[in-house]
Amino acid sequence: MVTKTEDAHLNRLENQVDNGGGGVWEYLCLVRKLKLRRSEKVLKHGLSILNDPKKRSALGPDEWTLYEQVAVAAMDCQRLDVAKDCIKVLQKRFPESKRVGRLEAMLLEAKGSWDEAEKAYTSLLEDNPLDQIIHKRRVAMAKAQGNISGAIEWLNKYLEIFMADHDAWRELAEIYISLQM
């Protein structure tokens, strides 16, 4: 939940960035910290940093975090070419990373390659069965395909492991309500 203060700060920064007043990196960090999806703006402003070698190198190790943030934003905006390029850079830097593997699976999902994405998620869960993000991606993937019973099944499996996740319980309840169960 975003507080009023955080929301005001975000809106002020967003206006500043949109009007060329600087603060792009601060804005991107705040969006990430608050776990918001402002995909079009993240894509636009993130690429402005990544495409400028001087700005990009000034980030130090945060460069990789920005590549990940921009890749997700690009998938949200259906700019799969940009997402693929970002993931390729991350893959080269972190060849055995499960986190990059998750991004690759998300790209398959964004392309509509559901079976391939499911195989990738299954493989990643074999290595780390407690990866909450992957479990949640499976739910999202079932919902995206209109497979409500599949989403319910994945949510129930998720909640067997992560019983304290209030948002997941709420999501399951909302699905049941929508089905008038």
Automatic annotation (TrEMBL):
<keyword id="KW-0256">Endoplasmic reticulum</keyword>
<comment type="subunit">
    <text>Component of the ER membrane protein complex (EMC).</text>
</comment>
<dbReference type="InterPro" id="IPR055217">
    <property type="entry name" value="TPR_EMC2"/>
</dbReference>
<dbReference type="GO" id="GO:0072546">
    <property type="term" value="C:EMC complex"/>
</dbReference>
<dbReference type="InterPro" id="IPR039856">
    <property type="entry name" value="EMC2-like"/>
</dbReference>
<comment type="similarity">
    <text>Belongs to the EMC2 family.</text>
</comment>
<protein>
    <recommendedName>
        <fullName>ER membrane protein complex subunit 2</fullName>
    </recommendedName>
</protein>
<feature type="domain" description="EMC2 TPR-like">
    <location>
        <begin position="100"/>
        <end position="181"/>
    </location>
</feature>
<keyword id="KW-0472">Membrane</keyword>
<dbReference type="InterPro" id="IPR011990">
    <property type="entry name" value="TPR-like_helical_dom_sf"/>
</dbReference>
<dbReference type="Pfam" id="PF22890">
    <property type="entry name" value="TPR_EMC2"/>
</dbReference>
<comment type="function">
    <text>Part of the endoplasmic reticulum membrane protein complex (EMC) that enables the energy-independent insertion into endoplasmic reticulum membranes of newly synthesized membrane proteins.</text>
</comment>
<keyword id="KW-0802">TPR repeat</keyword>
<keyword id="KW-0677">Repeat</keyword>
